[in-house]
Amino acid sequence: MNLNKVISVIGSTGSIGLQSLDIARKHNLKISTLAANTNIKLLEEQIREFNPTSVAVYNEDFAKELKENVKDTPTKIVSGMDGLCHVASQNNADLVITSLVGMVGILPTIEAIKAKKNIGLANKETLVTAGEIITKLAKEKNVSILPVDSEHSAIFQCLNSNKNKSDIKKILLTASGGPFFGMSASDLKNITPEKALKHPNWDMGAKITIDSATLINKGLEFIEAIWLFDVKPEQIEILVHRESVVHSMVEFVDNSVIAQLGVPDMRIPIQYAISYPERFESCVSELDLLKIQNLSFYAPDEKVFTLLPLCKKAISVGGTMPCAVNAANEEAVKLFLNKKISFLGLFNIIEKAVISHKVTYNPKVFDIINTEKIIRNKVLELSQSLEFKESI
Q1: Which residues pair with 239 in a beta bridge?
Q2: Backbone angles phi, psi at 351, to 5 degrees
Q3: Per-residue pLDDT tens listing for the chain (392 residues)
């Protein structure tokens, strides 16, 4: 078992980043570089514990403050997007874990791949918005993209039993259903950010938790799975699985179904990405099926949770359309968390912004970034309308 791996964590103060460092701590793994946005108090603690060679702070003002705070250490502090790209690529890591939230993760991931670093992908927006670019580059550089999402890690582990792509009949992508499973559209009228942030099973950051509540998280994972596993949209079926024990399944042409099960703890998929192709002993509790007893599965309600079919349509359209959906969602979630729009307004504003989008096919990175700016501005423009502010 190789416990001498070196990792880099881009997004080290977020939920995935903290759990990645938890695993590094348990197995005494070397940390090469770190990156975060504004939480410099926590970042300073991480610097003093893990002694990284360099650290990026996306916010330049906070970077200056951190630089002063850790001037007694040998760690180099860099800032901005250039800083993120620097720590993602200029390191001796065996694996770069990209766990930034949002499209800010695209360029650092590209630079890490160019530097021939294997990627532990926790930033789904990178593949959702730029999947064609990322997968092509990874293939050219002979770089592995190892999924960190629990569902995609589960699929990856199931597929390890059968490497022949033509044997895949269907991917069964599971969803918890979020906190509002079974509710009607009228039930969702008075949902507050506080209610939406109470996920029944998973401990995640605010943005991803809201995405789970709207089910767009599963729509984005649907798109991500297409790029990760090179399958067609019709080969993916989404199942709501309330217990969050079966993290996903793969059905093969002989109708055999292989599933990956475990307690709902993100440290399992994170650790597997770090240890792959080996397995390390886990700090996570064992799965006790006798306590669980029942495993249930349901079809998602796409008439109420309309962002799920919107994502499916976006990937079938292709080009910059998935980027438009993702960018609209990022801006709308921000508005909802700040109580600028209602929960149902969030659904409607995303749909209206996406309908307005003029698709660019075979996009370059510039097209992706430009689409993001246009769509975010469209969401902000729409948010001024009273129809999106009802029931706040």
Answers
A1: 174
A2: -60, -45
A3: 667 899 999 999 999 999 999 999 999 999 999 999 999 999 999 999 999 999 999 999 999 999 999 999 999 999 999 999 999 999 999 999 999 988 899 999 999 999 999 999 999 899 999 999 999 999 999 999 999 999 999 999 999 988 788 999 999 999 999 999 999 999 999 999 999 998 766 666 788 899 999 999 999 999 999 999 999 999 999 999 999 999 999 999 999 999 999 999 999 999 999 999 999 998 899 999 999 989 999 999 999 999 999 999 999 999 999 999 999 999 999 999 999 999 999 999 999 999 999 999 999 999 999 999 999 999 999 998 766 665 55
> Is residue 345 within a helix (H) or strand (E), and if so which, with residue range?
helix 343-355
Q: How far is CA 210 from the centre of its chain?
A: 13
In contact, 6 and 94? CB cutoff 8 Å = yes
Strand partners, 34: 9, 55
